[in-house]
Amino acid sequence: MTFLHLVVTSLLEVQIDQKTYNSMPYLTSAIFNESHGFGRPEMYKSALVGSVDHYERHLFLCYKDPSSWPAKVEAADYDPLPHSLVTALKTRRSEMLVKTRLTIIEEDQQKDPETSRGDVLLFPDMVKYKGLIESDMDSFVEEVLVAGKELPLRSPGPLVGSHVFICAHASRDMRCGFCGPLLKQRFSQEITKLGLDGKVFVHLCSHIGGHKYAGSVIIFSSKSENEPVTGDWYGYVTPDDVPELLEQHIGQGKVIEKLWRGQMGVEKTAQKELQQQRMGPANEDCDTCACASASWKE
Length: 298
Prior knowledge:
This protein has helices at about 5-15, 20, 25-35, 80-90, 135-145, 175-195, 240-250, 270-280, 290-295; strands at about 55-60, 100-105, 120-125, 125-130, 155-160, 160-165, 200-205, 215-220, 230-235, 260-265. By secondary structure, the protein is an alpha+beta fold.
């Protein structure tokens, strides 16, 4: 191992942030890409489809930014806002109408003035509660998630368009910390290029499971106004895949099979069956198809 590799490895151990990475010389950043980025050896080595645990509703809580999140931001006692929501969720878990997942997302008022700390986004409900504080969380879980009502005196606003969530939780795993911001940058560029500003929204988020699949992306969108919103998970996403995700998945409602991990509301075994149905009889043996073996880019 060269001296430069040793330096980079040491930096990774202290979880550098994206700003630090951007200031590095080209050779150093290239080593990062090979060890934790899109050029790392493990890319495309694991099967993707069927790797999403079953759940039926996704909550996203806006709280600070990825560089400030501890490894387990949802459980950190010194981060009272996410901690109070997690505590309320755990207390009433058995009473909730559907199995619910919580993820933290960045608050980025400079780029998205409609988003602020304490906002809670619900999918597939496509609604947002604005500016919840610690004392609201018990009532939110009781009224909205258990009773299926609206939070008193805090009617939700509608969410419009398609929403893309990208794991960038560097303190949990540097692979996502490396890949996430670069993916968001490419998404933002392509959204503007395609005239999709105000129609497609991109958020950096905390750990969603499966860091080995970084870049990890979830897309909430519908094929048409009359169809329900789906939450599709993608793995091994690189910046070069972004145009296809925008044009094919969001634009035409076509799943990108080679990157697809699964879908909210679908059991693991059913995820494989669903993909087989989409791909047709010629691909019924999904154990040997490219998307299952993840060997399509080797």
